[in-house]
Design a protein that fits this description.
437 residues; alpha/beta; Aspartate Aminotransferase, domain 1; 2 domains; 16 strands; globular
Length: 437
């Protein structure tokens, strides 16, 4: 096209074309290509990506097997609504997923995003139980659509100007060892949070009206908070006691991120329903509400629907993603490299007073920054200085936490020891620089 603007010119016009709610984020890199853990920018920089498109490109950017599967499917058929037609990649994916999911979770409603999967999970729970009440947990993030936002409390800004939210939603405390002051007392932390849930059921919410408990097994946007196992097993017990469904939102924790295929397996808890997405198709839009046949067959035709859910190209990419995860041993790699990463982060914490906490599981890792000498006072400015200093050195990380005081790492599961060590070296340099300012 004659006189077409360059990519750099287009980036300069972003504020004129894209809504601030979409475009105004950090750092706005002008990326022209990506492969594995590296992104190449229009200004010539090469960036080591420890964000994976927010825990999505678990197989790395543009894995050749995923690319080939999508290209092949695109040549055959790009789209047709499920039910009007069936396509082979969808049906093969339905056969493949139960082999990696918790036992008995073997029927699917496919959508396009994690928020859609969450919406579907809550609608399923209300539909099959005939009960209205949803219990979520403080600090959780479940998406931006109305039901998903109604059960999200990671940051108050996500709720600003959107009242009234969907009704019959209540919140119970999440087991947060660091912010609750429990330290290594896992049992005490879990028991305190579970006691808060039981008090909610005693004083506010009739148990007979609760359709579901929905929880992130590890909180993502809320700050990479890893609860004690006893908390999740306690939720399973309480859900059974009151006849409610237990929904795990595994949109961010799924597909090897925690060092197991799903956090349900890492924490040894069996949900009734799961919401999965993000890494399912290595970046192609796909997600799913997952449950057993006994529940799903009670969610009758026409009770829910989608145009693009289960798209042929996305399903083909998902099949290739599962093959890559298995063939390349990415779950085991996430455990091994995650252990190395966490060990390195703990060493950084020991040398830097601004780092108040290090936590994580598998390749979900985070540092929380607080004001030195005031370990509960969040220091968002310090976290941002660290992010900026890392980026100048070629490492991309991202924030989390209620005050954006947490720096989180969610690299592709294909990373190597060399990647981990390079990332840790850059991070320590950045923390040193940021503390000196």
């Amino acid at each position: 096209m004659l006189n077409a603007p360059s990519f750099v010119d287009l980036v300069a016009r972003v504020d004129r074309r894209l809504a601030p709610s979409l475009a105004q984020d950090w750092p706005g890199l002008p990326v022209v290509s990506a492969s594995g853990l590296e992104m190449k920018c229009a200004d010539g920089r090469t960036i080591l990506d420890f964000t994976s498109g927010i825990a999505t490109t678990n197989t790395g950017h543009c894995h050749p097997k995923v690319v080939a599967a999508a290209q092949h499917q695109t040549a055959d058929m790009i789209h047709s609504a499920v039910g009007i037609t069936y396509h082979e990649s969808l049906l093969r994916l339905c056969e493949a997923l139960p082999r990696v999911l918790p036992t008995g979770l073997d029927m699917f409603f496919f959508g396009n995003s994690g928020a859609e999967a969450v919406e579907g999970a809550v609608k399923l729970a209300r539909y099959v139980t005939g009960r209205p009440i949803v219990i979520a947990f403080t600090g959780g993030f479940h998406g931006r659509t109305y039901m998903a936002a109604s059960i999200t409390t990671a940051k108050s800004k996500y709720r600003l100007h959107y009242e009234p939210f969907v009704g019959s939603v209540y919140f119970a405390p999440y087991a947060d060892p660091f912010h609750g002051g429990w330290g290594d007392d896992a049992e005490g932390c879990a028991n305190a949070a579970l006691a808060g849930l039981r008090e909610l059921l005693d004083r506010v919410v009739p148990p007979s009206q609760v359709a579901c408990l929905i929880v992130e097994p590890v909180q993502g946007e809320g700050g990479y908070v890893v609860p004690p196992k006893e908390f999740l097993s306690g939720l399973r017990t309480i859900a059974d006691e009151i006849g409610a469904l237990l929904i795990l939102d595994e949109v961010q924790t799924g597909f090897g991120r925690t060092g197991e295929m799903f956090a349900a397996q890492a924490f040894d808890v069996h949900p009734d329903v799961m919401a999965i997405g993000k890494a399912i198709a290595s970046g192609f839009p796909l997600a799913a509400t997952v449950a057993g046949e006994d529940l799903m067959k009670r969610w009758l035709a026409g009770a829910h629907g989608t145009t693009f859910g289960g798209n042929p190209v996305a399903c083909a990419a998902a099949l290739a993603t599962l093959e890559v995860i298995e063939e390349e041993g990415l779950v085991a790699n996430a455990r091994a490299q995650g252990a190395r990463l966490l060990a390195g982060l703990r060493e950084i914490k020991a040398r830097h007073p601004s780092v108040a906490d290090v936590r994580g599981i598998g390749l979900m890792a985070a540092l929380e920054f607080t004001v030195p000498g005031r370990p509960k006072e969040p220091d968002a400015a310090m976290a941002q200085r660290v992010l900026d200093a890392c980026l100048r050195r070629g490492l991309l990380l991202y924030v989390a936490g209620a005050h954006s005081q947490v720096v989180r790492m969610m690299p592709p599961l294909v990373l190597t020891t060399a990647h981990v060590d390079r990332g840790l070296s850059i991070l320590e340099e950045a923390v040193t620089e940021a503390e000196a300012r």
